[in-house]
Automatic annotation (TrEMBL), chains A, B:
NCBIfam families: PRK06765.1 (NF005262)
One term under GO cellular component: cytoplasm
Subcellular location field: Cytoplasm
The organism of origin for this protein: Pseudidiomarina planktonica
Similarity remark: Belongs to the AB hydrolase superfamily. MetX family.
Enzyme class, spelled out: transferase
Active site: S181, D344, H377
Name recorded for this polypeptide: Probable acyltransferase
This enzyme's EC code(s): 2.3.1.-
Length: 397, 397
């Protein structure tokens, strides 16, 4: 157990890191552009065929002539392909891992050709920077959004679509696949499904398989949507979207991704017995407004059905989709690095540890290092720079 | 951070403890009966007057002539006064802390007169063993349930009503007040509000004040009810109760009160890519059914408004209801013992540590010990016997 002193130390170093992240971002602007990859037809792991599959992608750095310097970045649950750089100089923020991807950075774009793609059923199809295919897409058979007619997809499906994208570029080997959270599931799935193509796999704040606790946590995120009458069994595209449900879903995800250490720093304080709160249980408290107003502001960019499909893809995950985790991991030949966050409350380090233990039992040599920080799960994004040297060494050797 | 070995060790000792709990319960049956305490009129901390306040209570052991051997037990969020013993020999289970309350046990009913009472706005007013007053009670002014006309109440109000009950028995000093979770809030509130009456205070899996993170967690529990159209702004007593909302609320509480270690032991396993789950996102997974079916089974015993009022009472808590926690704690003269659970994910040990640190700064000598176990928050109930000797020593000295 951490003492209060250690916690204070963590917190100050975390804040310093965030500050340095921001500085780094301003130092050298890497420019990129969003592109579209199209697959005329794709058959899912579940055996259903989808036509006209489209996902967005972007790159940083240059593909060399041998086409052997490519690194694939796979994104987290509420993320998208925008891992580094900016689309325009004037963008307020660079991509989420800009502190480790760029010229001279841990994933050095002077040496590597970095590819990052949107997944199928991306959480935020109404974000103009997201290109994805899912229940909110137009079903060519009906000219209306699919809704629940869209087939259930898995992390394996995300990876197969990325495989088609990577292959379309003439790339036969990936120098590495690197992802955080849901991105880590894709990274390990890549290593298990296409072992001959993946030389290095980095799992940040990740897992080798979902356990019952995480499967339940994911369902807690789905319930507010399923219980919102506007959801209407997935058929809401001509009416009002289930924004109350989506707002609660996003509030659950946001809180679970953050440790009390950082939330208690950032959220507004509460006076003792505020008069409004004593008036009615329907009057909100300041910390509650802080969380829920932010969640509501993001709700219209998300799509309720896409969130449900993402939940399901994650719930079904076991690396390699074999009968046991061990059978899936047995197929991996890549060098592997696991970096969970010590204070993570969403995918706690025991999940990465379980995958590492299985790999060791299989005679492999996984590398394991914990990220320290006050953010919890989000340390995989906001404190990743503290592991820049570990990552650089792993990538370059 | 625990290693896998420590986790395995924890888990086996936890299971042994649960087994021994069950054995203890069968060894000697303490019989008790539920009684009703009535206050014709009560004015809340918020200044509203409620007439005909009724709460249930029960006792174990005998009050001595000097009336100075009484110990008050205060209950947790989803609990009630039934802390020990059975109402009838044939009851399936004894009260929740039967492993530490009874003849010869840590809280020895051969020596002490133990009182335990239901709180105001108890979560489960439809449980025949619960007697409480809250929004589901009949408002004498209208002869209909209060609904949201019931005044907001605080942990201070729970304690004031208990104070009236204790005083009605001619008791002027409590040998100890002992509570788990929300019960710990009442215990510390007692020590801060009635310092001359409380000689010892035991906070199990507790806090001195709510922080922003916990205030938000509590709101996550309230949201499913507020978003359920059957809730109807609290006016549902003549229609259908908002059971979908209450079910999700209970599922959130249940999961948050348990650590993945125990959930992953108890929940059904999932086969890889189950066909039904690939068919539709609306088909549930086994672990999800396990949690939600259990929650639904308990939903009709709970009352949606009572849950919202309990959430609010907890959200407003700071010991002594003074401007700062320190000012509240400064009033405490009781000996204090704090026992958070090391693996708690709901009221993590930093909360008890913060109260202990403040008490030390005030020159007091709080005692602090962590409960180990696989249950998380519920270790405060299921693993409490591991701290029986600590508790006995604290109570008897």
């Amino acid at each position: 157990m951490k003492t209060m002193y250690q916690i204070m130390l963590c917190l100050s170093s975390g804040i310093l890191l965030v500050a340095s992240l921001v500085n780094t971002a301003q130092a050298d602007t890497l420019l990129t552009e969003k592109r579209v990859f199209t697959l005329p037809e794709y058959t899912t792991v579940g055996g259903e065929t989808i036509t006209d599959v489209r996902v967005g992608w972007e790159t940083y750095g240059e593909l060399n002539e041998a086409r052997d310097n490519a690194i694939l970045i796979t994104h987290f649950f509420s993320g998208n392909s925008h891992a580094a750089g900016k689309y325009q100089e004037s963008d307020a923020q660079p991509g989420y891992w800009d502190s480790i991807i760029g010229p001279g950075k841990a994933i050095d774009t002077n040496k590597y050709f970095v590819i990052s793609s949107d997944t199928l059923v991306n959480a935020n199809p109404n974000d103009p920077n997201v290109i994805t295919t899912g229940p909110a897409s137009i079903n060519p058979a009906t000219s209306k959004p699919y809704g629940l007619d869209f087939p259930v997809v898995t992390i394996g499906d995300f990876v197969h679509v990325q495989h088609a994208l990577v292959s379309s570029l003439g790339i036969e080997k990936l120098h590495a696949v690197v992802g955080a959270s849901m991105g880590s599931l894709q990274a390990i799935e890549w290593a298990a499904t296409y072992p001959d193509m993946v030389e290095r796999m980095v799992s940040v704040i990740g897992a080798g398989a979902m356990d019952a606790w995480t499967i339940m946590s994911l369902e807690q995120w789905a319930q507010p949507i399923k219980n919102d009458p506007n959801w209407n069994n997935g058929d809401y595209y001509e009416g009002e979207a289930p924004l109350d449900g989506v707002t609660h879903t996003l509030a659950l995800i946001t809180q679970q991704a953050m440790h009390p250490m950082i939330i208690n720093q950032l959220a507004p304080k509460q006076e003792t017995l505020p008069a409004k709160a004593l008036e009615s249980v329907t009057n909100n408290l300041p910390a509650v407004d802080w969380l829920f107003n932010a969640s509501r502001a993001r709700a219209s960019v998300a799509d309720a059905n896409h969130l449900l499909y993402l939940v399901r893809a994650n719930q079904l995950f076991v690396a390699g989709h074999e009968e046991t985790l061990k059978e899936g991991l047995a197929k991996i030949t890549a060098k592997t690095l696991f970096m969970p966050a010590a204070n993570d409350l969403l995918l706690k380090p025991y999940l990465a540890k379980a995958a590492v233990a299985e790999l060791k039992e299989l005679g492999k040599e996984p590398q394991y290092e914990e990220i320290s920080g006050p953010w919890g799960h989000l340390d995989g994004v906001y404190t990743i720079q503290s592991k820049a040297e570990t990552l650089r060494e792993f990538i370059e050797n």
